[in-house]
Amino acid sequence: MFQRTLLTVAFLTASGFACAQMSPIGTWNTIDDVTKAIKSEIVVTETAGVLSGKVTKLLRKDVDQKAVCKECTDDRKDKPFVGLEIIRGAKKADGKDVWEDGKILDPENGKNYTLRLTPIEGGKRLEVRGSVFGMGRTQTWVRVQ
Predict the structure, then answer these.
(1) How far apart are CA 24 and CA 95, in angstroms?
(2) pTM of the prediction?
(3) pLDDT given at position 111
(4) What integer pLDDT is reported at residue 1 of this predicted model?
(5) CA 84 – CA 86 distance, rounded (Å)
(6) Nearest to residue 104, comparing CAs of 124, 132, 65, 71?
(7) Angle at 105 between CA 103 and CA 109, to 5 degrees
(8) 7, 38, 86, 94: least CB-packed within 10 angstroms?
(9) CA pair distance 63, 60, nearest whole angstrom
């Protein structure tokens, strides 16, 4: 009886962990489109069903760690990249492992894009799509283990 209970608890814990991983919530490394090197670390959190994401580390050696968002045109103008909120307002789509209806900021050009987040590969990677009028690009972020 004890073994059966222990196995049930272990299974429920493992399945809960697997479900939790199919979410954008967590810590992610962004990858530079050109060099393919790790660029930054982003932490995505949820409050009342709405996601936000902040830059927590700049990981490229050639980037000034005290750089600010000079190109931003909203409340993030002249704010440091580290601590900058780049994801705002994304919500889970009904019945899907997709989060959308939010915005993502590209701090290098100061532009905001319509956002779509899709966990892939069992939640190990995150497809991050930024677009304007359907035109855009998709990056793949890697979950920090």
Answers:
(1) 15
(2) 0.83
(3) 96
(4) 52
(5) 6
(6) 132
(7) 145
(8) 94
(9) 6
Q: Would you say 79 and 68 are in contact if contact means Cβ atoms under 8 Å apart?
A: yes
- The residue behind tokens 């009028």 is 133
pLDDT for res 14? 42
Distance CA 80, CA 106 (A): 13
Which tens digit of pLDDT belongs to each residue from 104-141?
999 999 999 999 999 999 999 999 999 999 899 999 99
Q: In the numeric block, which tokens belong to residue 4?
A: 């059966």
The answer on pLDDT for 3 being more than 70 is: no
Locate 125 and state its tokens: 């990677």
CATH number belonging to domain 2-143: 2.40.128.520
Amino acid 88: pLDDT: 98
